[in-house]
Amino acid sequence: MVPRDYLYKVSRASFEGRESASYAIVKFLEIESTEVSSNGWMLLSTINLLSSGESSLIDCMTAACLPSTLVKCLYLFFDLPDVQKADTLEPGCEFTPKERRVLLQKVFVQVLVRLCSHMSPAEELARKDDLALLFSAITSWCPAHNVPWRKGCVGMCIDNMQRVQELSPIELVEMFVTVFCFLKDSSEVSQVLLDDFRTCQGYLFLTDFLLRMEKNESEEAIQALRNLVLLVGSLTTCGYMELKPSTASAGSLFKIPGFTIPQPAGKGVSVRNIQAFQVLQSVFLKVSS
């Protein structure tokens, strides 16, 4: 399923510097001027097409260790050097270096998101500890020019959930459960993914989805709506940083002699995610039920 030269390039990362290894893999996968010289790009495009297939096909990819290989690549891509001559169109090339990198990033992330929506790739990542590697990669600092590799994962999830029309309300809520669990677990060590979810308009999509669900009077939709509201409620308490009142927001309270701000009695469940709280507030003010 996966050519040996691709797996070999990835395995060499253990013996080379991460920057040089990541660059070698990207040069193999990026589209070139012709299909003849774009073996890696044709391979990735084929995998992208196959990744939208049946679970039996995904199981074959998992048996070939494709999900864990892609995660290892993603981990290395955070150390990529910046694109040189980004907007210069070379003779005989249809895409600039920057366009090639953006195209690779979009297709690569799409493949990874599609695979991870199935059971066998998730089990493989957990079994090989590559799931921990994925968490480490997308919650760690990286140079500004490599941020799209991290943010693209969250953005692609949201985009896929918005585009797919065949999913039932329950199926969409199950997707939200997966995303929220990911956000919640990562928020214990870093604010990065919560920030990415906000930047990718995830909370706006969540608000619109809740308001649309309210208009659906089917029993399934009502149950899905109830579960999702509970999920958003739990998301309000997720966050790496504790929210503190500021002098500007407290106003004259700081001027009262002897006044001290009361300590929260939430026992660990105080609001830490103001964006999730605002989703509940906005929906509460707009719904009619």
UniProtKB/TrEMBL annotation:
Keyword line: WD repeat
PANTHER family assigned: BLUE CHEESE
Protein name: Uncharacterized protein
Organism per entry: Paralvinella palmiformis
